[in-house]
Amino acid sequence: MAPPPRRRERPVRTLVTLAVLIVALFASIFAGTRWGDASLTPNLALDLEGGTQIILQPVPEAKGDVTAETINQAIAVIRQRVDASGVAEAEITSQGGDKIVVGLPGRPSEETLDLVRTSAQMEFRPVLVMGAAAPTADPTADPATDDAAPSDQPTKAAPDSPSDVAYYVTPAVQKEFEALDCTLPENRTGGVPGDPEKAVVACDVEGTAKFILGPVEIPGADIKSATSGTGATSTGASTGQWVVNLEFTGAGTPKFTEVTTRLAGQGTAPLNQFAVVLDALVISAPSVNEVIPNGQAQISGSFTRETAATLANQLNFGSLPISFEEQSVQQISATLGSEQLQKGLLAGVFGLLLVVVYSLFQYRTLGLVTVASLLVAAVITYGVIALLSWVQGYRLSLPGVAGIIVAIGITADSFIVYFERIRDELRDGRSLGAAIEKGWERARRTILASDAVNFTAAIVLYLLAVGGVRGFAFTLGLTTIVDLVVVFMFTHPLMVLLGRTRFFADGHPASGLDPRRLGVDVARYAGRGRVKQGVEQRTGSASAREPVAVGAPGLTIAERRAAARAAGTASAPPQDPPTTTDDEPTTGRPEGSDR
Amino acid sequence: MATGFAQWGNDLYTGRRSYDIVGRRRTWYLISAVLVAISGILLIVPGLNPGIEFRGGSEFVVSGIDTTDQQLATDTVLAVAPEEVPRVTTVGGSSLRIQTAELTSDEVTEVTNGLIAAFDVDGDQVTSTFIGPTWGQDVSEKAVTGLVVFLLFVSVVMTVYFRNWRMAAAAMLALFHDLILTVGVYAAIGWEVTPATVIGFLTILGYSIYDTVVVFDKVRENTADVLDQTRFTYAERANLAVNQTLVRSINTSVVALLPVASILIVGAFILGAGTLRDIALALFVGMFVGTFSSVFLATPLEVTLREREPRIREHTAKVLAARAGVTGADGETVAVAPRAAAALRPGSHLGTAAQPKRKGR
C-alpha cells in the first residue's frame, strides 16, 4: 500500500475552522432565540416533559398496502384535526415507516383522543339543502320545496335518485339541520361519518354553511389521485388560478359520470352541487356545470396555493382506505420523567468524571486532551441538538439521553486508539512528531472503520425502529458524527501542536508520552550528526530490564562490542530470550508496517 | 502502578511478554460454548420476563407520594377489578407503578380516581397507560428486522474493508455469542424486558462489531505480509495483534463501562424500574462480553477460519517444518521456535542467533 501523499499539516487552521463552526452553530441558535422561536435548551420529548402518547397502527381496510405516502397524508389529516381542536404543540410523526405516533402535551380530553384515533372517511354525497351556518330560527322555512326538485312524494317507498329531497329530508333530518350551529367550533371538529344510506347534516369546514346531504354516492376509495395546480384554458395557457384536479379510478369513473349527468341536469344551486365529506365535515361543495365522462374533474374557485394543496391532500387521503388500530396510549407524568432525567444526567456526569480520572491516570497530561476533546464533543452535541430541536422539531427523550451517555465511551475510544497508536510508534523509536503523524495515519483508518460500523448501526436502528429506539439511534448516530468531527478537527490538530512543545517532544514524565516509560531503548538519529541515545543506556536501572539492547546505530562496531561486553558482565544472561534471540535479519523497519 | 501498566503495555507491544490467546483457542471456545449453553438453558427455564409492552395491559403510575404502600395500591385495584392480580413496583423514591391486565376505559377511570383518593394526590400525579399486546411484539419484530438488515450490511462492509469474508464471519459469530450471553444474563436476573431493553440489545450489535473491528484492524496490519516471511505463522502474528491491542481493549472497555455502570447503579438502586435501568444493564453486560469476545473469541475464530485457507495452511506447515529442521540440524533447542511473534524494532539487536551461522562452530 503506497503511503498517501504527504500533506502539510495545518493544525492551527483546522482548529480555527472548528472554532468558527462552533461559533456559527451557537450564533444561529442565539439568532433563533432573538428572532425566531428557538430556545437555548433542547425541547424535551413527552417522556421527560409529560403528556400523552398514542401509537397508531394503520390498518388497510380493503386492498393494498400502507405506503409512506399514505402515512404522510394520514399524519396531515390527524394534525389538521388536532390543531383544529386547539391542542397546542402536538407532535405527530411517523415511525418505523408504518406507524403514527401522536404526542400530546398534558392530559388531552377524551374528545381529542377520539379525534386522533378515528379513521378518516371520505365520501361524495349530493347536496340536498344548504343553509347559513347559524341555526335557523324559523322552522317553517322549508327550502326542500325547491322547484327544481323532482316532484316526488315523501311517502314513497324508494327514492328516484340520491338527490331525491322529498324522500331523504325527513322531518327529523330537517329538525336536526335547523338546530345545527356551525358557527360553534366544537361542531366543526368532524367526527364519525353518518349512515351512508341516509341523509346527514354536516357543517362545512370553514363554519360558513351547513348542509343536508344525500346518501353516499362515491366512496373516497374511488378517487385515484388529486393534485393542485394552476388552471389552464382550452388553449393550454395558464389562467393563473389555483385549481384542484381530481381523477377517479376505473370503478369511480362511471359513478362520477352518472352523478355529474344528474346534477348538471338539475341546474340550480344547491341541487347541482355535490359535497366532498371528510370526517363528516364538508371540505368542498363544488357545483357541477357539465357532465364529466372521463373521470377527470377540475374543481375551481377562489383557491390560494395553500387551500388548493390542502384540498388536494384531503382528497388524496380520502382515497386511502385505512383505519387505525391503537397500539398503545401512554400517559407520562412529567415528575417521573424529570426525576429520571435528573438522576440520569447526574449518573452521566459522575461516569464522565470517572472517565476523566481514569484517562488522567492512564495518559497523564494526554488525559487532558481527552477531557478537552470530550468537552468539545459535548458542546457540539448540545448545540446540534438545540439547533435540531429548533429547526427540525427534534425532542430529546430519555433513551436519547442514554444514547449520549453511552457515546461517551465510544467517543473516548477514538482517543484511546489514537494515543495507543502514537505510543506504539514511539516504541518503534520514532520521534514524537513522526509518531503523531504515523500514528494518526493508522488510527484514522481504524477510527473511520469502527465509526462507520457504529453509524451503520445507528442508521439501521433509526430507519427500522419505533418509539424510544429511535431517539436512542438518533443520538447514537449524531454522536458518532460528532466524534469524527472532534477527532479530525480537534484532537489530531491539538496533538500536532502539542507535539511541537518541549514538554511533549522531550517526553516529560508527566506527558504520558515519556519514551522511558514506553520502553524505548533504541538510539535514533536526531539530526545534525547527533544521535539521541536510547533511554536504557542513559539510565542504569533500565538496562537490567533489557540487557541485550545494545545495537545503537551511530556507534562503531568496536563501541558496540564494548557495550555488549559491558552489558554481558554487568547483568545476568537474557531473562527473556524469545524476543532477543530471533533469527531474522534486522530489517530496520517494524514488522507489519505499511509498505 | 500506572508505570507498571505502561510497562506491561510495552512488553505486550514488543512481544517480550505475550499471552498465548490464539494458541489456547480451544479453551476459549469451550468456555464460550459453556456460557452460551447456560444462557440457552436460562432462556428456557426461567425465561425472559416480558414487560407490559409485550404482555399488553394497563399501567398506572402514582408519583410524588409520601408512602409507597404497595398493599394500598393493590387494594385500590382489587376494589375495581376483583379478578385482577396487580403487579406493584416502586419506581424511584416516591412513585408506585401498578400493572394490570387490560382494563376497560371505565375501569381505568375508576382505578385512577381510586388511586387519587387512596394516596391523596392531585389528578395529574396519577397517570394511566394502555398498551396493546401487539406493541411490544411489533417492537421486537422491528428489532429482528433491524438485526438482519444490520448483519447483512455490516458483513458486506467488513468483507469489503478487510477483503476477506472470514473476518466478517468471525465477527458475526462473536456478535451472536455476545447477544446470547446478554439475553441470558437478563433472563437470569429476571428484570422485565421492555423496549428499552431491546434498545440495549440492539446497541450491543454496534458495540460488539465496533470493538472487533478495532482488533481485526491490527490483525490485518500484522498479517498483511505474513506469507512473505517464514518466521512466524499466521496464528502467531494474529496473537501478537491481540496482545498489542490488549491495553487498548482494556482502556476502552473501562472507559465505556464507567458511565454505563454509573447509570446502572443509579438506575437499579435509586430509580428502580425504568428506561435507564433497562438500557444500562443490557449495555453493561453486552459491552463487557463484547470486549471479552473480541479478544478471546473473534480473533481465535478468525484464525481458525483462516487456517482452513490452503495458502495459510501451507505457510503454517512450512514455518513449523523450518523450525523443526533448524532444531534438528543444530542439535540445539535454544529459542529457534519463538513462543510468540514479536514486533521488530528498528535498530535493535536481535542477538547472535540472528547472525549467519558459521560452519563448524
Automatic annotation (TrEMBL), chain A:
Residues 135-150, 564-573 have a biased composition (Low complexity). Forms a complex with SecF. Part of the essential Sec protein translocation apparatus which comprises SecA, SecYEG and auxiliary proteins SecDF. Other proteins may also be involved. Residues 215-322 form the SecDF P1 head subdomain domain. Pfam families: SecD_1st (PF21760), SecD_SecF_C (PF02355), SecDF_P1_head (PF22599). Belongs to the SecD/SecF family. SecD subfamily. This is Protein translocase subunit SecD. The keyword Transmembrane applies. Residues 323-498 form the Protein export membrane protein SecD/SecF C-terminal domain. InterPro entries: SecD, SecD/SecF_arch_bac, SecD_1st, SecD_SecF_C, SecD_SecF_C_bact, SecDF_P1_head. The keyword Transmembrane helix applies. It is found in: Cell membrane. It comes from Cellulomonas xiejunii. It is a multi-pass membrane protein. Gene3D superfamilies: 3.30.1360.200, 3.30.70.3220. Residues 135-163, 561-595 are annotated as: Disordered. Part of the Sec protein translocase complex. Interacts with the SecYEG preprotein conducting channel. SecDF uses the proton motive force (PMF) to complete protein translocation after the ATP-dependent function of SecA. PANTHER family: PROTEIN TRANSLOCASE SUBUNIT SECD, PROTEIN-EXPORT MEMBRANE PROTEIN SEC. The chain crosses the membrane at residues 344-361, 368-390, 396-419, 447-465, 471-490. Its main location: membrane. It comes from the Bacteria. Residues 71-127 form the Protein translocase subunit SecDF P1 domain. Keywords: Cell membrane, Membrane, Protein transport, Translocation, Transmembrane, Transmembrane helix, Transport.
UniProtKB/TrEMBL annotation, chain B:
Residues 120-307 form the Protein export membrane protein SecD/SecF C-terminal domain. It is found in: Cell membrane. It comes from Cellulomonas xiejunii. The keyword Transmembrane helix applies. This is Protein-export membrane protein SecF. HAMAP family: SecF_B. It is a multi-pass membrane protein. Belongs to the SecD/SecF family. SecF subfamily. The gene is secF.
